[in-house]
Amino acid sequence: MNNVITEQLTQAGQKIEHDSFSIVDQEVGAHSYQDEQWQVVRRMIHATADFEFNGLVKFHSDAITAGINAINNGANIVADVEMICVGLSKPRLNYFNVNTHHFISDEDVITQAKKLNTTRAVQAMKKAQTLNLLDDSIIAVGNAPTALIEITDRIKNHEIKPALIIGMPVGFVSAAESKEITQTLTNTPWIITHGRKGGSTLVVAAIHALLAIVESTRKNK
User: Closest Cα partner for 88 from 215, 204, 210, 206?
Assistant: First the structure.
């Protein structure tokens, strides 16, 4: 395997990851996911040691294909928080010419959020739109339900057209509701975690799984 695009760069690391995936496969029991969907869910379970994500992860019917196409096209990844961008493997992103963006800590975003009495996450997504980063992008939300709601509203208003939404905000206020709203989108593919569970770690795991799927697809051609 080409080390440039291998997430684990040592044989020892690769063995640990392989063994971990094998344990997940052995212990998970039955699941209803298609093969490539399962690769995403399995990596999310691997990242959290939480088997409840078998069933909590929901996919739009076109989500995997949309993710593959977006990565192959060098899509932007627009994240609600910096943690997602930091967690993603830079060598692999660079190989696929995929760039990450986050704006939640920008001074203009903070100023505008205070002025309008809204959240930084909402203003960060608005800024991403003004920079023309949202169309054909992968929008990655692991923390802020308000960001996910803002994105779905703009999609429904025909203001933006992202390639894929990975919506997994965690929490007790509006987290579950924001994902329910996302599931009402029919023409924009999405991957979500049902209910309150979520987090940036899960979003990173899902994106890494999609990158691995694309890598495998290219090698099999």
Answer: 204
Region 111-116: mean pLDDT is 98
Q: How many CA atoms lie within 13 A of 115 on its CB side?
A: 7
Pick from 54, 53, 42, 41: nearest CA to 17? 42
Q: What is the residue whose two structure tokens read 């044989």?
A: 11
Q: Domain 55-219: what homologous superfamily?
A: Cobalamin biosynthesis CobH/CbiC, precorrin-8X methylmutase (3.40.50.10230)
Nearest-angstrom CA–CA distance, 13 and 214: 21
Catalytic residues: 46
What are the sequence ranges of the domains in the chain?
Answer: 55-219
What is the value of pTM for the model shown?
0.93
| Phi (first) and psi of residue 167, to 5 degrees | -110, 105
Q: What is the DSSP letter of 10?
A: S
10-63 pLDDT, tens digit each: 778 888 888 888 999 999 989 999 999 999 999 999 999 999 999 999 999 999
- DSSP state for residue 152 in the 8-state scheme: H
Place of tokens 């692991």: 142
